[in-house]
Amino acid sequence: MHSLTNRATFYRIHPNFSIHRTFQSSSETYAKVIEMYARDRAFYRGRAVHAQLIINGLARLTYFATKLMSFYTECGQLPNARKLFDGIPKTNIRRWIVLTGACARRGFYEEALSAFSEMQKEGLRPNQFVLPSILKACGHLSDRQIGENIHTVILKNSFESDAYINSALIYMYSKCGLVEKARRAFDWIVDKDLVVMNAMVAGYAQHGFVQEALDLVQKMQQAGVKPNVVTWNTLIAGFSQVGDKSMVSEVFRMITANGVEPDVVSWTSVISGLVQNFHSHEAFDVFKEMLDQGFRPSSVTISSLLPACANVANLRRGKEIHGYAMVIGVEKDVYVRSALVDMYAKCGYIFEAKVLFDMMLERNTVTWNSLIFGYANHGHCNEAIELFNQMEESETKLDHLTFTAVLNACSHAGMVELGKSLFQKMQEKYRIEPRLEHYACMVDLLSRAGKLTEAHDLIKAMPIEPDKFVWGALLGACRNHGNIELAEVAAEHLFQLEPESPGSSLLMSNLYSEAGRWGNAARMKKMMKQRKFSKFPGCSWIESV
């Protein structure tokens, strides 16, 4: 028997959870169990291990404290992680490495930057283990300024030879939309390896420069750097997203020619690209081919395919995939459940979406947004607003889509004052800059309520150029309220944005006719005839169940 062996058994500690597994409580075993529970985000099981470590006195050791910090962060329990962090001696640099790394991995990017700032205030110098996580956080937040400051720190401390720092630097610039700067950072690297090549390839692919990514791979091959399956999958994803099916097939051919076998990620990338380009039937065909080839879909595959059912409201196919997800054991994955909530909501089955939502022990931003959108789009505006309030109370991170959904609900419900306060709260409390879709919601909200002048004033005050949806919301309301003067202003802007579209001209013709201005209506119809405008026949993407 091992000298450290100390048998321990965990019993029921939560109504929905019990462990009857006996295991050796050696340091290595405890560490592996904590890592496993962190990976699975098994909060209650991990908390039971923490309790056992407290009982036997091991929780005080920095080694276990950092493991538990990572576990709690992965489970979204930042206060617990912070409590463990504060209990570790301040002179221990490892606590900062673990905290920033765990936050960046889990998506708590602002918290990662906040921890880094706190670390600097304590006089600790950043090292090569902390900086990659901070650069990743900067990239996700599109915080170019902090990212460039970190780049300066890297140069000052001569960290530019570290492959992981270089790849993180390329990642940060790419995420910030600075592909040229990312390429310059790549070119500065003397000994380019697979890690930095993959980072640059990903940067190109994310912004649609997939041919440049392929050219780089071929150039690096000539220099002796052999691409791996990650490289090829990035190229497949890139060509799939831009809808270049022939190049997707070519990359698949190149994979096998280079002695690399496509994996489940390769197939998932193709499916995801097809779904994003609204080629739903082809996505289903590729999924079937993937199964025929003997590949087992992952939770990412299923969550990528489900939006294809939502796009065409194909409930029958959606239910089939739901059942298959249950069979292969991925149905409870948070991303799969979120995609299922979205699918059922978009198909009009709000009750089923709500049942799934309520069953989820873990919910992310996408989960909440999907149901709020579902409520708003199907006229359940009060329920959408109530769910938004619950989301705020749950401390889940709100994003720009959250506010698009709730502002849409306010618009349909005619809740002008609430919509205004939420629009202001979005900017002041959550620091979210309004996008075109937010302005479109606000213009629609004000216009529906008859506040056309206020809506027009908002458009004129916009710091970004209004698009067709903003002007379209104003024009539609002008017809409903009979305001021809503002309708003409909106129609003129729409015509400039969409000179080939008959929509605004047809609406103005109808508006003139309703107002008895037959001369204007006749001129508008004549202009439409001269430009050979024709009505686009109505169609539906909803498939029969």
Description:
With 545 residues, this protein is mostly helical. Helix content is 69%, strand content 1%. It has 30 helices and two strands. Strands 1-2 form a two-stranded antiparallel ribbon. Helix 6 packs across helix 7 and helix 13 packs parallel to helix 15. It is globular and about 85 Å long. The N terminus is likely disordered.
Spell out the key features of this protein.
single chain, 545 residues, mainly alpha, two-stranded antiparallel ribbon
Describe the protein's topology.
Layout lengths: L6 E3 L12 E3 L2 H14 L2 H13 L6 H13 L3 H9 L7 H13 L2 H13 L9 H10 L3 H13 L6 H13 L3 H10 L5 H13 L3 H13 L6 H13 L3 H13 L6 H13 L3 H13 L6 H13 L3 H13 L6 H13 L3 H10 L5 H13 L3 H13 L6 H14 L2 H13 L7 H13 L3 H10 L6 H14 L2 H14 L5 H12 L3 H13 L15
Antiparallel strand pairs: 1-2
Helix pairs in contact: 1-2, 1-3, 2-3, 3-4, 3-5, 5-6, 5-7, 6-7, 7-8, 7-9, 8-9, 9-10, 9-11, 10-11, 11-12, 11-13, 12-13, 13-14, 13-15, 15-16, 15-17, 16-17, 17-18, 17-19, 18-19, 19-20, 19-21, 20-21, 21-22, 21-23, 22-23, 23-24, 23-25, 24-25, 25-26, 25-27, 26-27, 27-28, 27-29, 28-29, ...
